[in-house]
Amino acid sequence: MDSLKNIPHPTLDRPFAIELWPLFDTVYTQVAGFSANKFVFVPGETALSTLPASATMLITYYVTIFAGREFMKHREPFKLNGLFMVHNLYLTIISGTLLALFVEQLVPTVWKNGIFYAICDHRGGWTTPLVTLYYLNYLTKYLELLDTVFMVLKKKPLTFLHTYHHGATALLCYTQLIGLTSVSWVPITLNLVVHVVMYWYYFQAARGVRIWWKKWITRLQIIQFVIDLGFVYFASYTYFSSTYFPTLPTFGTCAGEEFAAFAGMGILSSYLLLFISFYFATYKKENTKGGRRRTKSRRLSETATRATIDMAKAEVPDVQRIEDSIHRLEDSMHHRTYSNGSANGSVTPRVTRSKKA
Predict the structure, then answer these.
(1) Whole-angstrom Cα distance, residue 268 to residue 184?
(2) What is the enclosing helix (H) or strand (E) of 224?
(3) How buried is residue 223: exposed, middle or buried, by Cβ count under 10 Å (0-12/13-18/19+)?
C-alpha cells in the first residue's frame, strides 16, 4: 500500500499525473537549441511571422495544388497508401501531444481564476508556454497543407471547402498570433480534438479499416465552430463594448487587436456555414428523397440554401473547364445577338456563292 502512495495521481495542477511540460521542454531544447520557456514570438524575426511570409506560403500552396492537378490530368494516380498512413499518423500524434500540453497549461488556470480570466487576460491566455504552443500549432497548419498534395497526386477532386479551409486556417492562426488574442486557446484546443479524431480516422481508413462514425467527424467540426463562435463573439463584444461603448453591459476588458477579432469572427463564421452546408449535402440526401409534398415556404428555404451547399461541395474547376465555359458563353452570346439582329432586320444575311457546274 505504501508503494501505491508513491505513484503519481492526477491533480488540478497535474491533470495527467506527471508533468508533461518539462519532458516537452527537454525535447524542444534538443531540437531548437534553447528552452521553450525562453521562446518569444517576435513579428518580423520569428519564422513565418510576417504577412508577406505567410502570404508567400499560401500562394505557393495554391499554385502547387492547381498546377499539380493540371500536371496529373493525363497521368495515372500515384499509389501512396504507405506515405498517406505515415502522414496521418504523425499528424494524429502531433495533434494529441499539443492537445495534452494545452490541457496541462489551461486546467489549473481556468480552475483557479475562472474562464473569463483565461480568455480575456494576457496573464491567463497569453503565457510563455501557451504562446509557444500557439506558434507550434500555427506551424502545423502548413504541414497539414500536404493533405491537399496527397489529394492531387491521387487524383481526388479538389472541393472549394477543402482548399479554402486549409489556406484560411493558416491565415487565421497567423492573425491571432499577431493580434495577441488570449481567447486563441479555445478554437485551437477544440480544433486539436477534431484533428486527433479526423487524422486517426484517415489513418485507419488507409489501413483498410471500415469505420462507421465518419459522419460524426463533420458533426464534431460543426459543434467545434459553434463553441468557437460563442467564445470569439463574446470576447470581441467585450473588447469593443469596453473600448468604444462603455455604457453597454460588460464583464470587463478583453485582450487582443481589432483586426484579429474581425478575422476570427469572419473566418470562423464562414467555416460554420460551409461545414453545415457540406453536412446536409453529404449526409442528408436520403432524407430529401420520397414523394412527400413540399410546401412553398420549404421550397423557398431549399432554394435559398442550395447555392451555399453547392459551393461547399463544388469541385474547383480546372483550366480546361473554365476555357470550355468561356467558349460556351461566347457562342451563346453570339447566337443571341444574331437571333435578335435577324428579328429586327439589322443583320445582313450571309451571301453564299453557288459552285459552278
Answers:
(1) 12
(2) helix 214-244
(3) middle
Closest CA to 19 of 31, 10, 30, 6: 10
Residue 114 lies in a domain: yes
pTM: 0.83
Whether 156 maps to a domain, the answer reads: yes
- Grid coordinates belonging to 262: 474581425
Per residue in 140-194, pLDDT tens?
999 999 999 999 999 999 999 999 999 999 999 999 999 999 999 999 999 999 9
Residue 94 lies in a domain: yes
Joined grid coordinates for residue 181: 488574442
Q: How far is CA 314 from the centre of its chain?
A: 17
Instruction: Tell me, yes or no, whether 271 lies in a domain.
Output: no
For residue 222, give the nearest of 276, 185, 266, 168 by alpha carbon.
Answer: 276
CA distances from 15 to 18, 19, 104, 133 (A): 8, 8, 6, 17
Domain count of the fold of the chain? 1
Query: Could you tell me the residue range of the domain that residue 200 belongs to?
Result: 20-210
